[in-house]
Amino acid sequence: MDPATLQQRAESILRRILEGCQKSSNDTCTVAIYDTAWVAMVSKTTDGRSTWLFPESFDFVIRNQNADGSWTNNDSSEDGILSTLAALLAMKRHANQPDLTTTQKTYDLDTRMAKAVTYLQKELPLWDVGASVFIAFELLVPAHLSMLQDEGITLDFPQKSVLMNFRAKKLARLDPSTLYGPQKSTLLYSLEGFIGRINFDKVQHHLTLGSQMGSPSSTAAYLMNCSSWDIRAENYLRDAIANGAGHGCGSVTGTYPTCIFEIAWV
User: Fold this and answer.
1) Are 29 and 245 in contact (CB under 8 A)?
2) Residue 239: pLDDT above 90?
3) How confident is the model at residue 78 (pLDDT cuts 50, 70, 90)?
4) CB within 8 A of 56, min separation 6: which ones?
5) pTM for the complete prediction?
6) pLDDT at 250
7) Comparing C-alpha atoms, which of 58, 36, 68 is closest to residue 106?
8) Residue 88 — left, alpha, or beta (φ > 0 → left; ψ -120 to 50 → alpha)?
């Protein structure tokens, strides 16, 4: 390619990036099964009837299960484990509450859940918990294991006690009530790890443009656990689906929106 053509193409790319910066909903991250699964678990009660609010998100999760039962892009074992735990939880809750479904689509959830459990039973024993550097793994993985147990799925593995010790030590250093004050904390990014441990009504003042720290999963957890429906959080999730990297296919990214970070590198 000659220098003049290369220059033209580079300028064209930069123009498109700059145009994207003008859109408040521009998003440059890739879709995340983990967050999409959490969005898929949000239900809403209208006129006395509860229904799944984002069936398109659940459909996306189902359609993207791998042949081995997992939801992983092979970037890290922790990502595959956590994404599969969240997707399994979403499937189990949908299976346990079929009356909330409004679509005509049918899924063989029993087979899909069995494959997911088989994958986790294979991968969890191989996970070196002590060597993990995945952010908040010591809070999120135990939380998902506990929620799955509440739904009737128990997963045991050799280092589970090690993981639970990590969680206990982490929680001993954290006072969840600090979330109730005016100061924002990175804990807001992973509120799903605190279900059953905090009063979600007391963190609503931390919403920014309808989100909890720009995290679809955390915002979904907030919306599912606050006592009064928060239309701001619902609208944020709708925006993340419609204008995020999935462009309306039901998926969301792990952080939304991201208008500056990647572009700044350009």
Assistant:
1) yes
2) yes
3) confident
4) 241, 249, 250
5) 0.87
6) 95
7) 58
8) alpha
